[in-house]
Amino acid sequence: MTAIDVRGLHSRRGDAEVLCGIDLTVARGEVVAVLGASGSGKTTLLRALNYLTPFMAGEVRVADACLVPGMSERRDRRTLQAVRRRVGMVFQGFQLFPHLTVLENVTEAPRRVLGRSVVGALEDGRRLLGRVGLEGKGAAYPHQLSGGQRQRVAIARALAMEPEVLLLDEPTSSLDPALVGEVLAVIADLAASGQTMLVVTHEMGFARRVAARAVVLSEGRIAEEGTPADVLDAPRSAATRALLGSAARV
Q: Beta-strand (E) ranges in 80-204?
């Protein structure tokens, strides 16, 4: 069963075309690793899937909702809200509310958007914090946490909306190397539970272990896709070979 279907996606930034006709289908329960050099269009692709970044051509289908060019936050509010309730996103820079506690960050959207009761939202929030290994941190504020802990709060916050699809944009890129493992372990646990995910990552080992499919972007196009073993062990495109060569030098 298809979770997301992308057809002919084009996006521009000024005069530069960032996405150049992306076609991509993600099955329910599938984990797709999105790989590529800086500037290849990875973040733009993820943000287009819930229309945080509008696109100029193509369409994105999520369940019975369809995103198309020219949508308005006001005129198309219901469609955009329907998609964003189904498609959660975890950003590189956490984007937690600094004035709210950890538990308040996790429960804010379910209460305000989904209409959950305070008691129910708090119960679910504590359960999710336990799931990401942050039991007992509910009363802390973001500035009191490590980067890895903040990213795990961001994952719990996204999960609190019970998304059908979870988008993770370089979830470890802003972390110290010592903290990367704790975030990747949480994502691996979600993958094992059947959570549909698109993960933009430069962690090749993680992609190999957790993803069912790897997609390599280059200059706004899909240069190659397949199982992680096929893509990483026997790359067919020059873009993939260059990416793997640069990763090996880091």
A: 87-90, 165-169, 196-200
> CATH number of the domain that 194 lies in?
3.40.50.300
Instruction: Give the pLDDT confidence score for residue 192 in this predicted structure.
Output: 94
**Coil/strand/helix, residue 133:** coil
Burial 65-79 (b: 16+ CB within 10 A, else e): bebeeebeeeebeeb
Q: Which of 90, 114, 82, 45 is nearest to 195 (CA)?
A: 90
Mean model confidence pLDDT for the chain: 93
Cut 0.85: pTM above it = yes
Ranges assigned E (strand) in the chain: 2-13, 16-27, 31-36, 57-62, 65-67, 87-90, 165-169, 196-200, 213-218, 221-226
Please state the rounded mean pLDDT for residues 183-210: 93
- Predicted confidence at residue 174, as pLDDT, reads 78
Number of domains, the chain: 1
Give the residue-averaged pLDDT of 201-217.
Answer: 94
Give me 150's structure tokens. 């903040």
Domain containing residue 125: 2-249
**Integer Cα distance of 159 and 132 in angstroms:** 10
Which pLDDT value is given to residue 247? 62
Residue 151 near residue 159 (C-beta atoms within 8 A) = no
φ and ψ of 224, to 5 deg: -170, 145
